[in-house]
Amino acid sequence: MSQTIKHNRKAWDKKVENGARYTKSVNHETIVEARKGMWSIGVTADRQVPRNWFPKKLNGLKVLCLASGGGQQGPVLAAAGADVTVFDLSEKQLQQDQRVVIKENLDIKVVRGDMTDLSMFEDESFDMIVHPVANVFIENIRPVWMESARVLKQKGTLISGFMNPVLYLFDSEKEEQGRLVVAHTIPYSALAEENVIEGETLEFGHTLEDQIQGQTDAGFVIADMYEDDFGGGRTIDSHIKTMLATRAVKLRL
Model pTM greater than 0.85? Predict the structure, then answer.
């Protein structure tokens, strides 16, 4: 396990302790509605994934929630009938899923590991992968797409959220002050900065070529996409969408 992965694992554990947004599990009412067939999930910050990206019925659908701990996507899909495995680097994020499982009497498998290494799963094990914005925390994303293609069945679906690298052009402190000042190049690496802080995640701004062509090189065809932002919560939101979501179908290896 690389030093970056070790660092970010600890940082995400700390985020759970601090109650950060992406570590808060869904509530009881959300699970009740999902059991009735009224549900939605997100893989970016604000918008929900279109329902037509999923089958009408999830019963028996084998879903891998990849780097998706936190008690959000996995419990909802399980309540809607899917056979769910949640895979995440952070033990405390996975504990959020386990708490929902116990409270709501759900059946979910949780597995801890690095999203670039799915060797514990056999080839063509899943019908669908749900992968919210997470590859921003790893240095090389191509293995994520290759491993996703390996463990998905033919014509299986990969729903993924990721950052538009334009976000990482700007000085983050100045952006918080309302100013957009270009300070970096793409691809961006937090490791190039001198102020790596224990307990704060290391982030990486990947090229769109690695994000999109990386999927097609792995054997996927991009079937749909949408853009998103932070819901108006950041200065850059008024200028450009900084997140994307894609629906990709495995058609070849």
Answer: yes
